[in-house]
Specification:
It comes from Loxostege sticticalis. This is RNase H type-1 domain-containing protein. It holds the Pfam family RNase_H. InterPro entries: RNase_H-like, RNaseH-like_sf, RNaseH_domain, RNaseH_sf. The chain has a seven-stranded mixed β-sheet with strand order 1-6-5-2-3-4-7, sandwiched between helices. It folds into three domains: 117 residues, no CATH class; 175 residues, 2-Layer Sandwich (Nucleotidyltransferase, domain 5); 106 residues, no CATH class. Helix 20 runs antiparallel to helix 22. It contains 22 helices and seven strands. Strand 2 and strand 3 form a beta hairpin. With 449 residues, it is an alpha/beta fold. Helices cover 51% and strands 9% of the residues. The longest helix has 19 residues. It is elongated. The structure holds zinc ion (ZN).
Length: 449
């Protein structure tokens, strides 16, 4: 974050050029509007994201020598309260947040992080890494009948596991139908659903390890991704540490009992009684609170970082749009989840369509008022009807006498697109379903923008 400002400026220029190519915008179009339209945030936000992820990884790796340089212990003694979150107004004013401040914010966020030195991969016994003493029955069940037969097979000791994440919190639950036992555990709210499902599996396996079992074991889960992680034998350094713990305990159970552990994916909400019971347990309350006991893998915090960056971009946009891109801000109130031109539609293959609509939405296009404002033409008068002294978009679309016939076609197209057609051009430019009609009007009248 403490980089040469001149060098950073060069990157900004490259990004601006790329944004103009992507959106087809004119040179005069404000940068903040292009960023919003293309869903590509300012580079400062990208740098904050990279710095945040770096700090997260560093805290997780528990690397004291690097940590002490970035997060010196005295910085905690100096202030008992963490520094305030970075705000949009700071970024607008050109202030670049220091790495220490980002690190302290991340430290505060990830108080319950799983710390590992070395990474879990290197702590796991080699025998466990190369052996897979369990079966994943995913591909061996061909139809409902085979599934029912397996479910009714009394020779298996069955267990159901489930994880749940909602605004009420995150829970991991398992159900043992043989002992009629259901256990639900609350875990940290920052946990991902994958972690909740994995932890539920780990708890079920710990339960098995503590009781005497004389038959093979069948564990049923509705998490396909968990079984895939167990199946593909991935040995990435940043793989969720709970997966390594699951593999370790499975290995231990196999060594102790000589029994085989089978995993099976069952779809949720399909009327399988055991699945419904464990799902209900995961959703409604908990028996034990493991929120501080169970540590969170560092990757789970990335969702919170992304969420905070969205908040920061919205703040940045709200302030920046009061200065630049005011017309565009009346159409697009906040950065969208994805650009409108990435929707699947036959028109969007057409580059001209995207350019014309983007220019209309930006309000920066080849029309007399705008070209005159840029001192490119001497007069802002309408060259088509010679009546209007200031030919803006409103005039061309709604009033110009030269285009009466094309306007009738446009109105008919707009009415075909929706039962309620808005009256203002901004409202029309807000809704994707009207774009085709507006595009046809431009192409059949002034030709291009
Ligand atoms: Zn006119």
């Amino acid at each position: 974050m403490n980089c040469n400002v001149t060098l950073l400026k060069k990157f900004d220029i490259i990004q601006n050029k790329a944004l103009r190519i992507i959106t087809g915008a004119m040179c005069s179009t404000p940068i903040n509007a292009m960023q919003c339209e293309s869903c590509i945030p300012p580079l400062i936000l990208r740098r904050i994201q990279l710095a945040s992820n770096f700090c997260l990884k560093l805290i997780s790796s528990d690397n004291k020598s690097v940590m002490d340089r970035i997060l010196p212990p005295q910085s905690f003694q100096m202030s008992s309260t963490p520094p305030p979150k970075i705000s949009g107004s700071e970024l607008i004013s050109g202030h670049t947040p220091e790495l220490l401040r980002i690190a302290m914010n991340i430290y505060e966020l990830s108080i319950n992080i799983y710390k590992a030195k070395p990474w879990p991969l290197y702590k796991t016994n080699f025998v466990i890494l190369v052996n897979k003493p369990y079966n994943i029955l995913r591909d061996k069940i061909n139809n409902q009948m085979e599934l029912n037969q397996l479910m009714e097979n009394k020779s298996y000791y069955k267990l159901y596991t489930d994880g749940s994440k909602s605004e009420n919190g995150v829970t991991s639950a398992f159900y043992d139908p043989q002992l009629q036992m259901v256990k639900s555990h609350k875990i940290d709210n920052n946990s991902s659903i994958f972690t909740a499902e994995s932890y539920a599996m780990l708890l079920a396996l710990q339960h098995i390890k503590n009781i005497y079992i004389s038959s093979d074991i069948l564990i049923l889960t509705d998490s396909k991704s968990l079984l895939m992680a167990l199946d593909n034998n991935s040995q990435r350094y940043n793989l969720n540490y709970i997966i390594y713990n699951i593999r370790k305990i499975v290995y231990e159970i196999c060594q102790l009992t000589g029994k085989i552990i089978n995993f099976l994916w069952v779809p949720s909400h399909c009327g399988i009684t055991g699945n419904e019971i464990v799902d209900c347990a995961a959703r409604n309350g908990f028996d034990a609170d493991h929120s501080s006991l169970m540590k969170i893998p560092h990757t789970d915090y990335q969702a919170a970082i992304t969420h905070d960056l969205k908040r920061l971009w919205h703040e940045y946009w709200n302030i920046a749009s009061t200065q630049k891109g005011k017309w565009y801000a009346t159409i697009q109130g906040s950065p969208p989840a994805k650009p409108w031109y990435t929707h699947k539609n036959e028109n969007i293959n057409n580059r001209k369509f995207i350019t014309i609509l983007n220019r209309l939405r930006f309000g920066h296009c080849h029309i007399p008022t705008h070209l005159n404002r840029l001192n490119l033409i001497p007069s802002a008068a309408c060259s088509h009807c010679n009546e209007e002294p200031a030919a803006d978009l409103e005039h061309l679309f709604m009033k110009c006498r030269k285009f009466g016939l094309q306007r009738l076609v446009m109105v008919s197209d707009l009415q075909a697109a929706s039962d309620s057609v808005p009256q203002s051009l901004q409202d029309l430019l807000r809704d994707f379903k009207f774009f085709k009609a507006l595009y046809t009007f431009v192409v059949t009248t002034i030709g291009t923008l």
